[in-house]
Design a protein that fits this description.
mainly alpha, 6 helices, 0% strand, globular
Length: 135
Protein backbone atom coordinates (compact mmCIF):
# COMPACT_ATOMS: atom_id res chain seq x y z
CA UNK A 1 0.00 0.00 0.00
CA UNK A 2 2.85 2.34 0.91
CA UNK A 3 4.55 1.67 -2.38
CA UNK A 4 1.36 2.39 -4.32
CA UNK A 5 0.86 5.71 -2.43
CA UNK A 6 4.46 6.65 -3.12
CA UNK A 7 3.96 5.83 -6.80
CA UNK A 8 0.82 8.00 -6.93
CA UNK A 9 2.62 10.85 -5.19
CA UNK A 10 5.54 10.55 -7.58
CA UNK A 11 3.18 10.55 -10.58
CA UNK A 12 1.27 13.52 -9.17
CA UNK A 13 4.48 15.47 -8.58
CA UNK A 14 5.75 14.71 -12.09
CA UNK A 15 2.43 15.81 -13.59
CA UNK A 16 2.40 19.06 -11.62
CA UNK A 17 5.99 19.84 -12.52
CA UNK A 18 5.39 19.12 -16.20
CA UNK A 19 2.40 21.49 -16.19
CA UNK A 20 4.39 24.21 -14.47
CA UNK A 21 7.22 23.90 -16.98
CA UNK A 22 4.78 24.26 -19.87
CA UNK A 23 4.35 27.94 -19.01
CA UNK A 24 8.07 28.52 -19.36
CA UNK A 25 8.11 26.95 -22.81
CA UNK A 26 5.30 29.20 -24.05
CA UNK A 27 7.22 32.39 -23.38
CA UNK A 28 5.89 35.67 -21.99
CA UNK A 29 2.21 36.45 -21.59
CA UNK A 30 0.37 37.81 -24.63
CA UNK A 31 0.03 41.33 -23.19
CA UNK A 32 3.76 41.58 -22.58
CA UNK A 33 4.44 40.45 -26.15
CA UNK A 34 2.07 43.08 -27.55
CA UNK A 35 3.57 45.84 -25.44
CA UNK A 36 7.10 44.85 -26.43
CA UNK A 37 6.28 44.60 -30.14
CA UNK A 38 7.17 47.62 -32.26
CA UNK A 39 4.35 49.91 -33.34
CA UNK A 40 3.23 48.91 -36.81
CA UNK A 41 2.63 52.56 -37.63
CA UNK A 42 5.91 54.37 -38.21
CA UNK A 43 4.22 57.74 -38.84
CA UNK A 44 2.52 57.53 -35.45
CA UNK A 45 5.65 56.33 -33.66
CA UNK A 46 8.11 58.73 -35.31
CA UNK A 47 6.09 61.84 -36.10
CA UNK A 48 2.75 61.99 -34.25
CA UNK A 49 3.68 60.48 -30.89
CA UNK A 50 6.66 62.80 -30.29
CA UNK A 51 4.32 65.78 -30.84
CA UNK A 52 1.82 64.38 -28.34
CA UNK A 53 4.60 63.81 -25.84
CA UNK A 54 5.92 67.36 -26.24
CA UNK A 55 2.52 69.09 -26.29
CA UNK A 56 0.26 66.89 -24.14
CA UNK A 57 2.13 64.53 -21.83
CA UNK A 58 3.00 67.09 -19.15
CA UNK A 59 -0.69 67.26 -18.20
CA UNK A 60 -2.05 64.05 -19.75
CA UNK A 61 -0.08 61.45 -17.78
CA UNK A 62 -0.67 59.58 -14.52
CA UNK A 63 -0.32 61.82 -11.50
CA UNK A 64 -0.92 65.02 -13.48
CA UNK A 65 -3.96 67.30 -13.63
CA UNK A 66 -5.55 65.67 -16.71
CA UNK A 67 -5.13 62.05 -15.56
CA UNK A 68 -8.92 61.62 -15.30
CA UNK A 69 -9.60 62.93 -18.82
CA UNK A 70 -9.48 59.53 -20.55
CA UNK A 71 -6.51 60.74 -22.60
CA UNK A 72 -3.49 59.63 -20.60
CA UNK A 73 -0.10 59.05 -22.16
CA UNK A 74 2.22 56.51 -20.57
CA UNK A 75 5.35 57.34 -22.56
CA UNK A 76 5.05 54.10 -24.55
CA UNK A 77 3.90 54.60 -28.14
CA UNK A 78 2.80 50.96 -28.38
CA UNK A 79 0.55 51.24 -25.35
CA UNK A 80 -0.76 54.72 -26.13
CA UNK A 81 -1.66 54.33 -29.80
CA UNK A 82 -5.05 52.74 -29.05
CA UNK A 83 -5.90 55.59 -26.67
CA UNK A 84 -5.06 58.14 -29.37
CA UNK A 85 -6.89 56.28 -32.15
CA UNK A 86 -10.04 56.24 -29.99
CA UNK A 87 -10.05 60.06 -30.18
CA UNK A 88 -9.79 60.42 -33.95
CA UNK A 89 -12.18 60.25 -36.88
CA UNK A 90 -10.38 59.19 -40.08
CA UNK A 91 -13.44 59.93 -42.22
CA UNK A 92 -13.57 63.49 -40.85
CA UNK A 93 -10.14 64.35 -39.39
CA UNK A 94 -11.00 67.99 -38.66
CA UNK A 95 -13.74 66.84 -36.30
CA UNK A 96 -11.53 64.44 -34.36
CA UNK A 97 -11.86 64.99 -30.63
CA UNK A 98 -8.07 64.97 -30.32
CA UNK A 99 -7.68 67.96 -32.65
CA UNK A 100 -10.77 69.78 -31.41
CA UNK A 101 -9.46 69.73 -27.83
CA UNK A 102 -5.86 70.49 -28.80
CA UNK A 103 -6.97 73.51 -30.81
CA UNK A 104 -9.39 74.56 -28.03
CA UNK A 105 -12.35 74.35 -30.44
CA UNK A 106 -13.85 72.17 -27.70
CA UNK A 107 -12.96 73.92 -24.45
CA UNK A 108 -9.70 72.51 -23.15
CA UNK A 109 -8.56 73.32 -19.63
CA UNK A 110 -5.01 73.65 -20.92
CA UNK A 111 -6.06 76.10 -23.63
CA UNK A 112 -4.91 75.91 -27.21
CA UNK A 113 -1.98 73.53 -27.64
CA UNK A 114 -2.07 73.20 -31.43
CA UNK A 115 -3.40 75.95 -33.69
CA UNK A 116 -4.79 74.73 -37.02
CA UNK A 117 -2.01 76.69 -38.79
CA UNK A 118 0.71 74.90 -36.78
CA UNK A 119 2.76 72.36 -38.79
CA UNK A 120 2.38 69.86 -35.90
CA UNK A 121 -1.41 70.14 -36.23
CA UNK A 122 -1.08 69.32 -39.93
CA UNK A 123 1.14 66.31 -39.15
CA UNK A 124 -1.45 64.87 -36.78
CA UNK A 125 -4.35 65.73 -39.11
CA UNK A 126 -2.66 64.05 -42.07
CA UNK A 127 -1.93 60.95 -39.99
CA UNK A 128 -5.59 60.78 -38.93
CA UNK A 129 -6.72 61.10 -42.56
CA UNK A 130 -4.40 58.24 -43.53
CA UNK A 131 -6.02 55.77 -41.11
CA UNK A 132 -8.62 53.27 -42.27
CA UNK A 133 -12.18 54.41 -41.61
CA UNK A 134 -12.59 51.67 -38.97
CA UNK A 135 -9.13 51.32 -37.34
Amino acid sequence: MRSRNASYLGLLAATLLAGACADFRRGPAADAAIEAAPVDDPVFANEVYPILQARCQDCHSMGQQAQSSGFVLSGNANADRATVVALVSPSDPDNSVLLLHASDAIPHTGGEQLAPADPDYATIRNWIASLPANP
